[in-house]
Amino acid sequence: MRTVNGVYELPGRALPQFAPDEPAADALPRYFAAYEDDLGLAVRRPVRVRRVRDLGGPDGLLAVDTDETVTRVLPTQRALPEDDGLGGGAGTTRPLPAAPDPAPVARTWHTRALVNATGTWTKPFWPVYPGAADFRGTQLHTHDFGRPEDFAGRRVLVVGGGISAVQHLLAIHPHAAGTTWVTRRPPDWRDAAFTPELGRDAVARVDERTRAGLPPQSIVAATGLPVTDAYRAGIADGVLLARPPFARLVADGAVWDARAAADPPEGWVPGPEHVAADVVLWATGFRAALDHLRPLGLRDPGGGIVMDGTRVVADPRVHLVGYGPSASTVGANRAGRAAVRQVRRLLGV
């Protein structure tokens, strides 16, 4: 949590004191789950929305087609002890047979308004690079990142210019045989502390793009990378010194053009034309998970969705929370309130 770029508290619930070394993947879900439990929110899960479609009737209803997983409740059972040969069955525990897989149930919900908050986590972005199919090592994405210890003794290429890439490098470096950082643009280090004012300015810039129907930038692309003490140490140690994009992946690593390797533009550091690697970790971000909305035809030809706040201009029944400027905790709080006001106005309540 030490390197998280600011978390805005949920309405009516103060942020707890997070341990600085606790992984954000543990701390934040716990905070959100406690909020859900306290309010008694009736969240149905797990549910997969397959598509949202316009029924085309005079009542203006949308149909939300889902697969809802219904877990079969089995009688309570205890694991059975193995016979240890000494009598009494005090040996190791033999696990019970696995429970049957949950059964998906198809359901369709009809609604006059839809607030879509599907985020980005289920849509990791994998860039297409020459030679990716030839690389014999392991390729994984931030989405699948496990423990830093998993990289022990391995040579790791980290690709990406955001906070996730920086955090991965600092976590992996003590365990790995070596790390190399590769970015599409030179790292955008900012010496100013992350403040609410900086956050609001970043949200406003992303909002300009979505109002124009352009694909949204990430909030971090607008805020840059804050130079914390940990990041300064990483720069001084050479861990957070980036190289320009490689020309292609090869079976045992990556290769750069001679000029890009020896004399890169300002903001990048030079290096060898070939770097051996066992792992390529793609910290290349995520895209909005909106495939289920495709039947509504919301996107402009340029690939973006024209927005007016949270409301989709092409279909005012649909609100996107967590898209564009609301893809952060501070933005999502504000967007959630705005969406509720507009939905109430649409429904006349």
TrEMBL record:
Coiled coil: none annotated. GO terms for molecular function: flavin adenine dinucleotide binding; monooxygenase activity. Residues 77-102 are annotated as: Disordered. Keywords: Oxidoreductase. The keyword Oxidoreductase applies. This is Pyridine nucleotide-disulfide oxidoreductase. It comes from Cellulomonas triticagri.
